[in-house]
Amino acid sequence: MTAGQLLREARRRHGLTQRQLADRARTSQAAVSRIERDLVSPSVTTLAAWLDLMGEELKLGAEPIDYGHDRTLNEKAVAMSDQERFDHAVSFANFVLRNRGAAQAR
Amino acid sequence: MPSPLPTSCSETVARPRRVEFQPGVILECLRRHEVDFVLIGGLAGMALGSALPSFDVDIAYARDIPNLERLEEALRELRVTLRGAPPGLPFQLDAKTLKSGAMFTFDTPYGSLDILTDPNGAPSYDQLKAAGSDLEVEGVTVRVASIDHLIAMKQSTGRSKNEYMAQEYRGLSDVLRAPRD
Question: How many CA atoms lie within 13 A of B65 on its CB side?
Fold first, then answer.
């Protein structure tokens, strides 16, 4: 979700128009519109202040992304010696190279 | 079983129809000629613990003339040819040519070798080398770029394949930094 989407959803939850929010924030309706359309990215401070004007608290968080990579494979490789890891890499690469196109050939 | 490595990269071998990837021969040759280089790219990632395969050797190298001359000698011994170039296309392999180019992509009897002066996303060569670590492979010490610089380089290209690798490297970075027993 973008900052603009977050602001727009909060404003609508409270039944406010862009003008009404702008009045509270002592800014213009156009400024609210630009942020809500993601034409301008507000600072965290501004976003938190504007949400506060609607009785909402901005909460920031971060958590690991699951890209779908298997970390146990990395852990296994890291536990090897440099040479073992290198040999594994070369062996794997050559396995792939040798079998490239094998599926299509069937 | 992988084929045994030749004792030196100058060993005469007939070029096979399908090249067996033998990066150890390439790296050993570069080190024996005392080329100042840093291993980057997918093979560097694998050397650090990535599970994603790589099929070529990518290196960044110092651009001072003595190093370019040593690199030239190593490339001659590796019998490099320009990858993808029409057969017979003249290519003057010397320090002057290497000095004037930013990236060369070669074929060797041992697999592909790409040499880059300023890889996208990488800092200066000195910084790249300083942040790297030494790994012992094939009896030689090879300087490998740091996982953080590998991530920066992979992300800088904008290619989906490289973004996929950068994602895995981020996880690998956590594994590398995790406390060991």
Answer: 1
- Every domain of chain B and the residues it spans: 23-85+92-169
Q: How many C-alpha atoms does B119 have within 13 Å on its Cβ side?
A: 32
**For testing contact with chain A, the best of B172, B176, B180 (most A CBs within 10 A):** B172
Contact B98, A43 (CB under 8 A): no
Q: What ipTM did this prediction achieve?
A: 0.74
Rounded Cα–Cα distance for residues B2 and B20 (Å): 9
Chain B residues whose CB is inside 8 A of the A86 CB are: 23-24, 46-47, 135, 137-138
Q: Are B81 and B106 in contact (CB under 8 A)?
A: yes
Nearest chain A alpha carbon to B47: A86
Alpha-carbon radius of gyration of chain A:
26
Average pLDDT over residues B137-153: 93
CATH 3.40.50.300 fits B23-85+92-169, yes or no: no
Higher-scoring residue by pLDDT: B93, B180: B93
Q: Which of A80, A85, A90, A97 to mutate to test the interface with B (most CBs of B within 10 A)?
A: A90
Give the strand order in the sheet containing B103-108: B81-82, B103-108, B111-116, B56-61, B37-40, B140-144, B133-137
Query: How distant is the alpha carbon of residue A67 from its chain centre?
Result: 12
CB B71, CB B33: distance < 8 Å: yes
Please state whether A30 falls in left (phi above 0), alpha (psi between -120 and 50) or beta.
Answer: alpha
Distance (Å) of CA A81 to CA A78, A87, A92:
8, 10, 16
Distances (CA, A) of A12 to A17, A25, A60, B82: 8, 16, 21, 62
Whole-prediction pTM: 0.79
